């Protein structure tokens, strides 16, 4: 009797071991395998089953703030691929997007169908806060650069006007005619004011080259006026003297009749 009991227990233990082994094998088979796509995205590996029926695209409703979009996408696509489609509609880059379905944010490598996305499912799109802050800072930076460009252009226009006057003075002096020294001094002062304006413009990047170029123009104009000032001082002013011709009065030939 004891032997039979032990034998039965042995079979029972053997059966339990087989059940445990089968469960372990099943767990091993359920381990998710991941694969790297050419674009660098890590996604869940799907089994190659040719018997899987071809499914139609899903129509997904996407809410982005007050805007609404309807995107047609393959149910076997990933959320990362959905983000790429949304880029064309929203202008947000995939890295700036956060997709939420059923109150949970989804990762780029997760598949739509495996996350329960069905036809007419609703997905909420929000802009990543960090990306939004970066976008805002970039907009402020661009606005600052544009404002600086306008200031530099204004200075450039004033320099153009002063350069025309300098050219006229240069031609006058070359023709041997003296100009008023005050005119030259005033132009130098006006150029120095433009130089101060340039110094007060805070700028970085490509606009620095434009700012430096206008600064060089101011310096060249001032140097030209300094040379013209010296040349102008060497010119002797032309003194115009007028000689008036004098005429003697004609002799009196009139005989006046005298009356008593």
Overall geometric form = rod-shaped
Kindly report the average pLDDT value: 80
> Rg, please?
46 Å
Number of helices: 5
Order of helices and strands: HEEEEHEEEHHH
What fraction of the residues are assigned to beta strands by DSSP? Answer: 5-15%
CATH topology-level name of the domain at 133-234:
Methane Monooxygenase Hydroxylase, Chain G, domain 1
Q: Just give the CATH class of the domain at 133-234.
A: Mainly Alpha
Helix content: 40-55%
Count of beta strands: 7
Biggest β-sheet strands, sense, barrel = 5 strands, mixed
| Beginning-to-end CA distance, first to last residue | 204 Å
- Looking at this structure, what is the CATH superfamily of the domain at 133-234? BAG domain
Question: Would you give an account of this structure?
Answer:
Among the domains are: 70 residues, Phosphatidylinositol 3-kinase Catalytic Subunit, Chain A, domain 1 (Ubiquitin-like (UB roll), Roll), CATH 3.10.20.90; 102 residues, Up-down Bundle (Methane Monooxygenase Hydroxylase, Chain G, domain 1). Helices cover 51% and strands 13% of the residues. It contains five helices and seven strands, in the order αββββαβββααα. Strands 4-3-7-5-6 form a five-stranded mixed sheet. A two-stranded antiparallel sheet has the order 1-2. Helix 3 runs parallel beside helix 5 and helix 4 packs antiparallel against helix 5. The termini are far apart. One of its GO terms (cellular component) is cytoplasm. Pfam families: BAG, ubiquitin.
């Amino acid at each position: 009797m004891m032997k039979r009991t032990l034998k039965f227990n042995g079979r029972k233990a053997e059966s339990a071991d087989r059940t445990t082994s089968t469960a372990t094998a099943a767990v091993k088979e359920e381990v998710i395998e991941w694969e790297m796509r050419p674009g660098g995205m890590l996604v869940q590996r799907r089994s190659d089953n040719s018997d899987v029926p071809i499914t139609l695209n899903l129509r997904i409703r996407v809410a982005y703030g007050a805007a609404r979009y309807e995107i047609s996408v393959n149910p076997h696509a990933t959320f990362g691929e959905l983000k790429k489609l949304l880029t064309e509609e929203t202008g947000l880059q995939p890295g700036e997007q956060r997709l939420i379905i059923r109150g949970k944010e989804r990762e780029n490598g997760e598949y739509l169908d495996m996350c329960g996305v069905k036809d007419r499912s609703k997905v909420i799109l929000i802009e990543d806060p960090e990306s939004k802050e970066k976008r805002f800072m970039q907009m402020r930076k661009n606005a600052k650069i544009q404002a600086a460009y306008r200031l530099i252009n204004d200075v450039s226009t004033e320099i153009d006007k002063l350069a025309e006057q300098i050219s006229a003075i240069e031609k006058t002096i070359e023709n041997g005619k003296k100009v008023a020294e005050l005119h030259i001094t005033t132009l130098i002062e006006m150029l120095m004011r433009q130089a101060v304006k340039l110094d007060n413009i805070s700028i970085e990047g490509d606009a620095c080259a434009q700012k430096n170029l206008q600064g060089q123009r101011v310096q060249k104009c001032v140097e030209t006026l300094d040379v013209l000032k010296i040349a102008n001082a060497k010119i002797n002013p032309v003194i115009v003297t007028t000689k008036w011709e004098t005429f003697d009065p004609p002799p009196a030939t009139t005989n006046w009749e005298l009356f008593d």
